[in-house]
Request: fold
Amino acid sequence: MKAGTMIERLARVKVSSGWITVVIGMTALGLGYAASAAILPTPKIGVIHIDVVIDRSIQPYFTIPLAYAAEHRDVAAVVLLINSPGGGAATSEELFYRVVELRSQKPVVASIDSLAASGAYYTAIGSNYIYAKPAAMVGSIGVRAGLPQPVPPDETSVLSGPFKGSGSSQIDWIRGMDVIKETFVTNVYDQRLYVLEHMHEQSRADRLPDKDQLATGQVWIAPVAYDIGLIDALGSNLDAIQKAAELAQVTNYEVIDLTFLTLFGDPTYIGSALPPDLSTLSFAHWSGDRQNADYLGSGPWPTFEHLYLPPTD
Amino acid sequence: MRRRSYLIVALVALVLGFLGRALFFYQGIYSGPEVPTSEADRFEVLSEPLSTPLPVEAVVTTILVDNAHRNNFDEQELAILFGRIAAAGGRVEVLRSGANLQKRLRSAGAFLVIANQRGFGADQVQAVEEFVRKGGRLLFVGDPTRLDDVNSINSLAGRFGITYQDDYLYNLVDNDGNYLNVILRDFESSDITRGVEKLVFQTAHSLRVREGAIVLGDENTFSSLRERPGDVTAVALTTDDRVLALPDLTSLTGPFNTFADNDRFIDNVVRFLLTSERTFDLLDFPFFFSTLTDVVYTDTLLLDATFEDATALRETLRGIGAETALQSELDDEHALIFLGLYDDVDEEVLALLEADGITISEEPLAPEGEDDSSVESRGRSQGQITLEGVGSLERGGTTLFHLHRAEDGPYQLYVLAFDENILSDGLALLLEDRLTGCMVTPVTALCALAELEEEAPEEADEAGEEEEVEVEVEGMGVLVVSDDAGSPGAEGKTSADLIRDALSADFSVTVVSTRVDGVPSPSDMLSHSVVFWSIGDYCCLAPSEDGAQAIMEYLDSGGALFISGANLGSDWAGSLFFETHLGALDIGDAALVDLQPNSHPIANFFEDTIQFEPGAGDIILDVIDTDVASIAFRRGPDSEFTGEPAIIAHDRGGSRVAHAAFPLYFLPEDDLDMLVQNALDWLTSGE
Reply:
């Protein structure tokens, strides 16, 4: 058969309008799907680990994943996996404000593993919802301080003022610490009251302790913390992820580890402990060992800490 | 038309494709909450006015501060309190470990016990009770951050109706910047709370008292022990307002003294310490004299006979700031020491003594068990002295001491004796603080010196020495050499006073200082049963070459020596003195903070490791070894060179020497006492 004959025969075939409609429809459907994929990426629940002593020197360990979550539209919600005694006061406050800011864009759910004390709990209250395992410990709302030590006069090194060497009078320091504590306590109270009033029945909001009771520095076990409104539910990390998806109103999501994605390029690792090959990192991974946190406040400068240290023998 | 249909189909399919996927993943839009976070202007920094002190009127008294019971404070911390005391004319003296509390309290107007971590012994408690009974002021300062065990402070405070609770106070509602900084406003009226409206304590105990609570907590003040509010006592004043208990040391130190009315409170405490109405007993001599004191003799012949004693008396009084003036007449308005003989004393004095229950009579005294009518017995008697309620004693050979005080009048000491020699001997007893061997009541002592005088010459004759009466409580003489002629070490201390205090209750102890008295000769040392030679933390070169030579000669002559100090090995390693006579080898220098007893008589009764007093580790000490001596104590587990000898005992066959390679003042009081006693027993025994 000649080629010209074949074309002529095809040209004479009469295509039905139904086929044309199907082809056009499928093509448009595919284009719509593609446009949707371009505009609305597959939602992801990002997991961020707060599982070390919150020290300023490792602040990027927390803030880089939080920033990533804020900047990437595909991260629909964030889950904070918390297991920490807290740490430096300013770093804890930084994390709190970062979480509150992120929460204005996308839901943040905290999931407490075994401990969210002091600065770690401070971080947790910035989230929309707090889960904890029944055996977890929560609380220790307060401040520790190393007092500024007077510097003896020295005629070989002259200071321009009486507190230029020490930084502050001890009286002002102690009184200042009380303001820091008040800020912490008020933030806990305001944040928890809001969550309880908006996400639970009013009866739960009424059970929130007053600020004086919150300020005792007590650590509560999770069931008690739930009873008095310091956490929202008892549950697992998976519950927290599902809650985050629910709040973000997404389904069929992926779960990615933002800590490992941003810091180590591995988005797939989701665990509550660091891989062994990362154990040489200089920060203090919290394993319940007081020694890991003891170095805080031991420097030459007076410090404030939102840190819970288990009692020594 | 067909084209329009195709377009519609395309658009619908496009939208469906988009929405289908979108709805597959997204079911709504998240809207973040607007929750307020705290703003700085919502809070107010506490800015309470600070306290201003009230001046304390000047007085003169001595405050004895206990630092002999592992008291957990630094004297520099108390600069504010001590400064106020000094500014008001008071004098602060510190009771060191090993010192005799009973003797040191004699001169004190107040006794200050701060965070003691070792309890008071029964005899010490008794001494303090006696001190308070006589009007002395007693101040306890506890502190939960410094007291590991409140039983230590309660061992004494409990005797005055005060019990420190093993707790701390806190207030979550009304505090000064921290729940532990409790604010107290509930005061009972007292001199301690005068002018005080508000106190702030930084971590304070609560007290349990039956009565005398003067500062109390409010309904929001909790004790950590009970965890319920109310009924909390923070400050107590008991025992006729003579005993004050404070719950917190920090509030007495800077800058916490400036909180609220703390400074005024401190001034009231200082006033409390300085205004004791202390009374004195005879055994408190010479401290009942504080101003110009008349020394009254019945006649000038007596003055001549006791001139040396009168001079010593004047020097003793001058040593405590009291001047003396010789007088021939009594003046009731003056403090005085009256010196006379029984037979020469005038009726005025006899009447005064009689009014105080003392009768001096020429009526012969019949010895006990003999018939009063025995002419022989009555013929030997030279009269009698009767102390009302005590009994009668032969007048011959005695010296009578009586302390008299008219109501609010000055103290007057009457010293009467049978003759001039007895008077002189009696004054020596008084000046050497040895009246305890006499018949003693709180204000009277009757000393029978004649018996001693009769016995002493025989002993002296046997020894071929001059007839000189030396009254000893027991017959053993100990020489303590304070070798302080070298260069001072870290503390600049020898331990001679502590050794003396450990032995003086039972033995006649002579203390010499090489800096003042020179090196004692071998014969000086041989005239004593035992020599304790302490170089403390002196060094370079202690003992001196003369001292080492004297020691070697003393040991070669059969002496018994206990030598202790920091740097003997560093100075004398390899020498004949160190290796042959002391039996020691020097192997290094290292800190020593504890001792382990070894099997040796010097370590008798020691069972546990002895922890040195704080600060001992700051001084580098000799590390010694021995291949000829026995080991009495070894370096403890917390010391460097654990297990190496720390005290060795060298029996040289005819002479004995024990060598402690550290200053004895590192030892706790009780351990030092026992070690010295053990060493003395071993050095003087034939075992």
Remarks:
- Confidence is low (pLDDT under 50) at residues 373-378, 452-475 of chain B.
- Chain B touches chain A through 49 residues (CB under 8 Å).
- The domain at 282-366+382-462 of chain B is CATH 3.30.379.10 (Chitobiase; domain 2).
- The CA atoms of residues 119 and 127 of chain B lie 14 Å apart.
